[in-house]
Amino acid sequence: MIRFGEAEGITIIEEFVEAETGKGFDALDRRPQLAAALTAARSAKCCVVVSKLDRLSRDVAFVSGLMAQRVPFIVAELGRDADPFMLHLYAALAEKERRLISERTKAALAAKKASGAKLGNPSNIAAAGVCGRQIQIAADDSTAPIADECQPFLDNVVAQFGRQRA
Questions:
Q1: Can you tell me the distance from the alpha carbon of 10 to that of 136, in angstroms, rounded to the nearest whole number?
Q2: Which of 63, 67, 111, 156 has the most Cβ atoms closer than 10 angstroms to its Cβ?
Protein backbone atom coordinates (compact mmCIF):
# COMPACT_ATOMS: atom_id res chain seq x y z
CA MET A 1 0.00 0.00 0.00
CA ILE A 2 2.83 2.36 0.79
CA ARG A 3 4.43 1.76 -2.62
CA PHE A 4 1.08 2.34 -4.33
CA GLY A 5 0.59 5.55 -2.36
CA GLU A 6 4.05 6.79 -3.28
CA ALA A 7 3.61 5.91 -6.95
CA GLU A 8 0.21 7.63 -7.10
CA GLY A 9 1.15 10.64 -4.97
CA ILE A 10 -1.23 9.58 -2.19
CA THR A 11 -0.29 10.13 1.44
CA ILE A 12 -1.37 7.26 3.67
CA ILE A 13 -2.45 8.94 6.91
CA GLU A 14 -3.57 5.87 8.84
CA GLU A 15 -3.70 2.11 8.37
CA PHE A 16 -6.60 -0.14 9.36
CA VAL A 17 -6.16 -3.91 9.19
CA GLU A 18 -9.01 -6.39 9.40
CA ALA A 19 -9.42 -10.04 8.48
CA GLU A 20 -13.17 -10.39 8.92
CA THR A 21 -15.70 -11.30 6.26
CA GLY A 22 -17.62 -8.75 4.24
CA LYS A 23 -20.55 -11.07 3.61
CA GLY A 24 -24.12 -10.50 4.75
CA PHE A 25 -26.50 -7.63 5.40
CA ASP A 26 -24.71 -6.68 8.64
CA ALA A 27 -21.19 -6.95 7.24
CA LEU A 28 -20.22 -3.38 8.11
CA ASP A 29 -21.38 -3.92 11.71
CA ARG A 30 -19.05 -6.93 11.95
CA ARG A 31 -16.10 -5.00 10.52
CA PRO A 32 -15.17 -2.33 13.07
CA GLN A 33 -11.86 -1.51 11.38
CA LEU A 34 -13.58 -0.81 8.06
CA ALA A 35 -16.18 1.32 9.83
CA ALA A 36 -13.37 3.22 11.58
CA ALA A 37 -11.54 3.72 8.26
CA LEU A 38 -14.70 5.12 6.66
CA THR A 39 -15.28 7.46 9.61
CA ALA A 40 -11.66 8.65 9.53
CA ALA A 41 -11.81 9.21 5.77
CA ARG A 42 -15.07 11.12 6.08
CA SER A 43 -13.57 13.34 8.81
CA ALA A 44 -10.36 13.94 6.85
CA LYS A 45 -12.28 14.40 3.58
CA CYS A 46 -10.13 11.81 1.85
CA CYS A 47 -10.51 8.40 0.28
CA VAL A 48 -9.95 4.89 1.59
CA VAL A 49 -7.35 2.82 -0.24
CA VAL A 50 -7.67 -0.99 -0.27
CA SER A 51 -5.22 -3.44 -1.79
CA LYS A 52 -7.71 -5.65 -3.64
CA LEU A 53 -11.46 -5.44 -4.12
CA ASP A 54 -12.01 -9.02 -2.97
CA ARG A 55 -10.21 -8.20 0.30
CA LEU A 56 -12.81 -5.49 0.83
CA SER A 57 -15.74 -7.72 -0.10
CA ARG A 58 -16.95 -10.35 -2.56
CA ASP A 59 -20.49 -8.97 -2.42
CA VAL A 60 -21.83 -6.55 -5.04
CA ALA A 61 -24.48 -5.15 -2.68
CA PHE A 62 -21.88 -4.47 0.00
CA VAL A 63 -19.55 -2.69 -2.44
CA SER A 64 -22.50 -0.69 -3.81
CA GLY A 65 -23.47 0.24 -0.26
CA LEU A 66 -19.97 1.54 0.40
CA MET A 67 -20.13 3.62 -2.77
CA ALA A 68 -23.47 5.06 -1.63
CA GLN A 69 -21.85 6.27 1.61
CA ARG A 70 -20.05 8.91 -0.42
CA VAL A 71 -16.62 8.00 0.91
CA PRO A 72 -14.55 7.35 -2.18
CA PHE A 73 -12.29 4.34 -2.18
CA ILE A 74 -9.43 3.34 -4.42
CA VAL A 75 -8.57 -0.27 -5.16
CA ALA A 76 -4.80 -0.38 -5.61
CA GLU A 77 -4.95 -3.52 -7.77
CA LEU A 78 -7.29 -1.77 -10.24
CA GLY A 79 -5.60 1.61 -10.17
CA ARG A 80 -6.64 5.07 -9.18
CA ASP A 81 -8.82 5.64 -12.24
CA ALA A 82 -11.18 2.67 -11.70
CA ASP A 83 -14.65 4.19 -11.90
CA PRO A 84 -17.86 2.95 -10.21
CA PHE A 85 -18.85 0.96 -13.31
CA MET A 86 -15.56 -0.96 -13.23
CA LEU A 87 -15.85 -1.49 -9.48
CA HIS A 88 -19.34 -2.97 -9.91
CA LEU A 89 -18.09 -5.32 -12.63
CA TYR A 90 -15.14 -6.50 -10.56
CA ALA A 91 -17.39 -6.85 -7.50
CA ALA A 92 -19.75 -9.05 -9.54
CA LEU A 93 -16.80 -11.19 -10.66
CA ALA A 94 -15.55 -11.47 -7.07
CA GLU A 95 -19.04 -12.48 -5.92
CA LYS A 96 -19.17 -15.19 -8.59
CA GLU A 97 -15.70 -16.34 -7.59
CA ARG A 98 -16.82 -16.57 -3.93
CA ARG A 99 -19.76 -18.75 -4.96
CA LEU A 100 -17.51 -21.03 -7.06
CA ILE A 101 -14.97 -21.34 -4.24
CA SER A 102 -17.76 -22.31 -1.87
CA GLU A 103 -19.16 -24.92 -4.26
CA ARG A 104 -15.72 -26.46 -4.90
CA THR A 105 -14.91 -26.52 -1.18
CA LYS A 106 -18.24 -28.14 -0.27
CA ALA A 107 -17.86 -30.73 -3.03
CA ALA A 108 -14.29 -31.59 -2.00
CA LEU A 109 -15.25 -31.92 1.68
CA ALA A 110 -18.27 -34.08 0.79
CA ALA A 111 -16.04 -36.33 -1.33
CA LYS A 112 -13.50 -36.65 1.50
CA LYS A 113 -16.23 -37.41 4.01
CA ALA A 114 -17.82 -39.96 1.65
CA SER A 115 -14.47 -41.72 1.36
CA GLY A 116 -14.42 -42.15 5.14
CA ALA A 117 -12.08 -39.32 6.11
CA LYS A 118 -12.72 -37.64 9.43
CA LEU A 119 -12.79 -33.89 8.85
CA GLY A 120 -11.43 -31.23 11.15
CA ASN A 121 -9.24 -31.28 14.22
CA PRO A 122 -11.26 -30.47 17.34
CA SER A 123 -8.11 -30.05 19.44
CA ASN A 124 -6.79 -26.97 17.63
CA ILE A 125 -9.79 -25.11 16.20
CA ALA A 126 -9.22 -21.83 18.08
CA ALA A 127 -5.47 -21.74 17.42
CA ALA A 128 -5.96 -22.63 13.75
CA GLY A 129 -8.49 -19.82 13.33
CA VAL A 130 -6.16 -17.21 14.82
CA CYS A 131 -3.24 -18.45 12.76
CA GLY A 132 -5.35 -18.63 9.62
CA ARG A 133 -6.24 -14.95 9.97
CA GLN A 134 -2.59 -14.01 10.54
CA ILE A 135 -1.48 -16.06 7.55
CA GLN A 136 -4.16 -14.40 5.36
CA ILE A 137 -2.94 -10.96 6.44
CA ALA A 138 0.64 -12.02 5.70
CA ALA A 139 -0.41 -13.31 2.26
CA ASP A 140 -1.84 -9.87 1.47
CA ASP A 141 1.19 -8.03 2.87
CA SER A 142 4.51 -9.83 2.64
CA THR A 143 5.95 -7.52 5.34
CA ALA A 144 3.32 -8.55 7.94
CA PRO A 145 4.81 -10.61 10.78
CA ILE A 146 3.47 -14.05 11.61
CA ALA A 147 3.36 -15.04 15.27
CA ASP A 148 5.81 -17.79 16.27
CA GLU A 149 3.00 -20.13 17.27
CA CYS A 150 1.53 -19.86 13.76
CA GLN A 151 4.71 -20.75 11.93
CA PRO A 152 4.15 -24.53 12.26
CA PHE A 153 0.70 -24.17 10.65
CA LEU A 154 2.20 -22.15 7.79
CA ASP A 155 5.10 -24.59 7.37
CA ASN A 156 2.63 -27.48 7.15
CA VAL A 157 0.53 -25.70 4.51
CA VAL A 158 3.61 -24.78 2.48
CA ALA A 159 4.92 -28.37 2.72
CA GLN A 160 1.61 -29.77 1.46
CA PHE A 161 0.68 -27.20 -1.17
CA GLY A 162 3.70 -24.97 -1.80
CA ARG A 163 3.76 -21.21 -1.38
CA GLN A 164 1.53 -19.71 -4.04
CA ARG A 165 1.25 -15.96 -4.48
CA ALA A 166 -1.07 -14.15 -6.82
A1: 25
A2: 63
